[in-house]
Specification:
The protein is α+β, with helices and mostly antiparallel strands. The chain has five domains: 5-306, Methylamine Dehydrogenase, Chain H (7 Propeller); 498-595, Beta Barrel (Lipocalin), CATH 2.40.128; 603-694, Immunoglobulin-like; 706-788; 802-926, Histidine kinase-like ATPase, C-terminal domain (Heat Shock Protein 90, 2-Layer Sandwich), CATH 3.30.565.10. It contains seven helices and 69 strands. The strands form 17 sheets. Strands 58-64-63-60-61 form a five-stranded mixed β-sheet, with no helix packed on it. Strands 65-66-67-69-68 form a five-stranded mixed β-sheet, with helices on one face. A hairpin with a 2-residue loop joins strand 10 (137-141) and strand 11. Helix 3 packs antiparallel against helix 4 (771-788) and helix 6 packs antiparallel against helix 7 (893-904). The radius of gyration is 53 Å and the shape is elongated. 37% of the residues are buried.
């Protein structure tokens, strides 16, 4: 939490105005607040009527004022007020906002004291017993709330809900506290609460104060006084016009701002002045003043909100009387020298170059395109060829070689060689010792363009040329030229070898990374107009329009250097005395390379919208279907100005996806559980170490919920059990049939063997003439055949009709088995086909003989009739013989034949118990 210092003088003035406010003025203020509160402000700089600014523990900025309560996340703001239906509050006008653990304490103009939950956006009223509803200040201290309801100080106990009056007739201007003490300022001085009474510490008006965990610093117009919780008091005297003060985030130092907008920094221990690089604010009277965790100073006034950033950058304006103020720079004799685009050579700070030296230039020579310091001399590429300045002799002269009167674009030194890129005739190689041109790369040799913007000689014998059309690679041994044609249309401006790679910056198509064989390894920074590149430590700095950038040659991470976005860089960039100097249209920017701690802002989902319903911050989401639309508003809580922040996300640890802007919209998600991870950069384009996370659960359709899937599983398991049981029954029935058939075959085999044996004996006896002895064996064979043959049984119709066969079968049963068969045949021969009659007779025969052979039944009855296009066959017996005919496992051949016939005609079989201990077999067969 950042503890801010309130502005006392402005509060006094505000209080005085409130005593005089007419009703129309109050109505106008409320009307303005309503209009402001209804909007979702993306920039808060223009907000006026702000009375208080704080930063909560998460890093969000909160502003209290006449328009309501505003939360700012560095990307956009949300206003909580009566006029915002999405985020309503029962009041608009706030005087004060303070952090109370994870909540905010709100002091309102018309509604008393409220507690606000920044996670939900909901507010609840604190039941303080204070007659006046207008509360100007509220603070949480040691579990109690202290409220300034002019002109009285109250204490509200959060444990007992009792409100206690501490002091009255006291024109309070602000409240503050350390870990152990509560302090009150008024127009008459500074007070400390001891034993529930206010003890006066300072008997003069306090302009502002800074508060720390163990001390408070009171600022008057003549002194700084530090009061420590251990009782120590220390005062330094100085004349002050200070209007506001605030502590430096996470330190014991503090800042002040005076009525002229001047920022000062002091030690909270010694009260001594400290250096800083915040510059100066606008000349305003600050309502509030705060230093946040990203290092930004916030100045809140009636003119709006101003943000100041400490910078290690110094801009030195250098504007010459020329058409285009594009300048090149170099170091000569330990000083910076400027090569202007029309005014010749110019000094940066000290007078290294005499003013009259430019008289030696021709008119075109005053337009400098490149400058290089070589062996203490300055080589100048101009629109009138190549020149050299000797600082010892203070002589400027043009180099003497053929055609040295045209535009020179670039210079590059390697050892004792100077590579010269021209605008019209390729490149030259100049020997610095012999002062002669030793080689010329002519457009006639196959250059892609005669305009050579930059030259890069490599140690492998190749020379890379950046032309206006492509990159040409020249083999210095064979003089063969190969071109790399890039996909964009922008000119290649600068070439650099580092980390065994070649980098090429372009004027609009970003930066390309190549292998030394010319293969493109990476393309990044698209859309930025880059110019010269410079290696600085392990990084590469590259000038652009606008801004100065740097990138890592290993991972190609590109970031803007803070506070450079306001400049357009067009010239060269150099390093001198641990400082980077880069020229721009308005002068030269110098950046101190002293290492500074990088800032990793916290990354949040600042707002979640599910199918149009908004929620603050992040929440585990559960949506009904894939058609729900989820929108996540993202924030990287870095309030410094700089490059536009970048965001990316991944789902369930998959690959990272880039987000356009700061809003992620998800829809069409299949039913499942999703884990979303989000990364963001800070204001300098560096990826933060903090990530944001959320969970999305998309419900399955009703027919695929967990309960339904469990039901489907049980059903499937039951079907599998049933299928297994049916397979088991089938295997048992097949085994039973096989066993019966095996027994029948075994019996038949025994009969056959017996007959064969007896006939063999008969044959032997006849051959021996023993005819009488063979007669018993023959009689035995005949008897055996009569007992086993079934041909005498009326199994089939034998060409007869069903009406004839059934009476014959009844007579057969009476004589052979002494059983009675009665029948009722309500059919005619024409109604049934012969095949169907034959099958019906076989069913009757097999059913009755099966019961008889098992020893059951003495009276049977058969009823056969046609009804509703079906033949109905009912067979009754006076025993329980038909009860087990539907058994799937234990059945005999007769049962098998009956089932086969029923299946053949698509019929059905049923059995029933009769009341007289009998049973019935019912068979229905369709006629068609």
């Amino acid at each position: 939490m950042v503890t801010t210092t309130r502005v006392l003088s402005s509060t006094i003035a505000k209080f005085q105005w409130q005593q005089l406010l007419p009703f129309p003025y109050l109505s106008l203020c409320l009307l303005i607040s309503a209009n402001v509160g209804a909007a979702n402000i993306t920039s808060i700089n223009s907000l006026a009527n702000i009375s208080q600014i704080i930063q909560d523990e998460k890093g969000f900025i909160w502003l209290a004022g006449q328009q309501g309560l505003v939360r700012f996340d560095s990307e956009q703001s949300i206003t909580f007020s009566t006029s915002n239906p999405s985020w309503p509050l029962p009041f608009n006008w706030l005087h004060d906002v303070a952090v109370d653990k994870e909540q905010l304490l709100l002091a309102t103009e018309t509604s008393g004291l409220w507690i606000f939950n920044p996670k939900t956006g909901q507010a609840s009223k604190v039941p303080v017993n204070i007659p006046r509803k207008s509360h100007y200040h509220a603070i949480s201290f040691q579990g109690d709330y202290f409220i300034n309801a002019p002109d009285k100080l109250y204490r509200y106990s959060t444990k007992t809900n009792i409100t206690e009056l501490i002091a009255s007739d006291l024109n309070i201007t602000d409240l503050a506290h350390t870990n152990n003490h509560l302090y009150v300022t008024s127009q008459s001085g500074l007070y400390r609460l001891e034993n529930n009474k206010l003890i006066k510490l300072l008997d003069e008006s306090v302009l502002a104060f800074a508060q720390f965990p163990a001390s408070i610093i009171a600022i008057t117009d003549k002194s700084f006084t530090r009061y420590h919780d251990n009782g120590e008091q220390f005062t330094t005297y100085r004349n002050n016009s200070i209007f506001a003060a605030t502590n430096e985030f996470n330190s014991n130092n503090f800042f002040t701002i005076n009525t002229k907008g001047e920022i000062s920094k002091f030690s909270g221990e010694t009260l001594a002045p400290l250096p800083h690089n915040f510059g100066q604010a606008s000349v305003v009277r600050a309502n509030d003043f705060m230093h946040d965790n990203s290092g930004v100073l916030w100045v809140v006034s009636s003119q709006g909100i101003e943000r100041l950033m400490e910078s290690n950058i110094k801009n030195t304006p250098k504007i010459f009387d020329i058409d285009i103020n594009a300048n090149e720079i170099a170091v000569l004799s330990g000083e910076i020298i400027i090569g202007s685009y029309g005014a010749g050579l110019q000094n940066f700070t000290s007078n290294v170059i005499p003013a009259e030296i430019n008289k030696a230039f021709s008119q075109k020579g005053l337009r400098v395109s490149d400058v290089r310091t070589i062996s203490g001399k300055l080589y100048i590429g101009t629109f009138d060829g190549l020149w050299c300045y000797d600082p010892k002799l203070k002589v400027l002269q043009k180099l003497n070689f053929p055609n040295n009167n045209k535009l020179i674009i670039s210079l590059k030194q390697v050892d004792n060689k100077l590579y010269i890129g021209t605008n019209y005739n390729g490149a030259y190689l100049y020997n610095l010792s012999s002062k002669k041109i030793v080689s010329h790369i002519s457009p006639k040799q196959g250059l892609s363009s005669p305009e050579i913007i930059d030259i890069l000689p490599l140690s492998n014998g190749d020379t890379w040329l950046a032309t206006s059309s492509a990159i040409d690679i020249i083999n210095n041994y064979t003089n063969n030229i190969s071109a790399i044609n890039l996909p964009g249309n922008s000119k290649i401006i600068s070439l650099l070898e580092i980390d065994n790679k070649i980098f090429a910056s372009t004027f609009g198509d970003g930066i390309y990374a190549f292998s030394k064989q010319g293969e493109i390894l990476m393309h990044f920074g698209q859309g930025i107009r880059f110019s010269s590149m410079l290696p600085v430590g392990d990084e590469v700095w590259v000038a652009a329009r606008p801004g100065l950038y740097r990138f890592n040659p290993n991972n190609y991470q590109l970031s803007m250097i803070e506070n450079t976005e306001q400049f357009s860089f067009v010239g060269s960039t150099i390093v001198h005395n641990n400082t980077v100097y880069s020229s721009h249209y308005g002068g030269v920017l110098s950046l101190d390379l002293t290492p500074r701690a990088s800032f990793n802002p916290k990354v949040y989902i600042s707002k979640t919208t599910i199918s149009g319903k908004p929620y603050l911050l992040n929440k585990t989401m559960r949506v009904a279907s894939k058609y729900d639309v989820i929108t996540l508003d993202l924030a990287s809580l870095d309030y410094r100005s700089g490059a536009q922040k970048q965001f990316r996300y991944r789902i369930n640890d998959s690959h990272w996806n880039k987000i356009s802007g700061n809003q992620l919209t998800l829809t069409g998600l299949a039913p499942d559980q999703y884990h979303i991870e989000i990364m963001a950069t800070n204001s300098l384009g560096q990826w933060s170490d903090f990530n944001a996370f959320t969970e999305i659960n998309v419900d399955f359709p009703w027919y695929w919920t967990t309960e339904m899937r469990l039901l489907y599983g049980i059903f499937l398991f039951g079907m599998m059990l049933l299928f297994t049981w049916l397979l088991y029954l089938r295997s048992k029935s097949i085994s039973y049939v096989h066993e019966r058939l095996k027994n029948d075959i075994t019996h038949c085999d025994k009969v056959n063997l017996q007959l064969k044996r007896n006939l063999s004996l008969v044959e032997n006896l006849i051959n021996q003439g023993e005819i009488e002895q063979s007669k018993p064996l023959i009689s035995q064979c005949i008897k055996e055949l009569n007992d086993t043959q079934s041909s005498s049984e009326p199994q089939t119709l034998n060409g007869k009709s069903l009406l004839v066969a059934i009476p014959f079968f009844a007579n057969y049963l009476k004589h052979k088995y002494q059983v009675t068969l009665t029948y009722q045949l309500n059919i005619t021969d024409e109604e049934l086909s012969y095949e169907l009659q034959s099958d019906l007779y076989r069913i009757i025969f097999e059913a009755i003989t099966s019961v008889l052979l098992k020893g059951g039944g003495t009276n049977f009855k058969v009823i056969l009739q046609v009804f509703k296009d079906k033949v109905w066959l009912n067979i009754y017996d006076d025993s329980q013989g038909f009860i087990n005919f539907t058994n799937k496992v234990k059945f005999d051949i007769s049962m098998y034949y009956i089932r086969q016939i029923a299946t053949k005609h698509n019929g059905s079989i049923n059995t029933f118990d009769e009341q007289d201990n009998g049973s019935q077999l019912v068979l229905s067969l369709p006629l068609s």
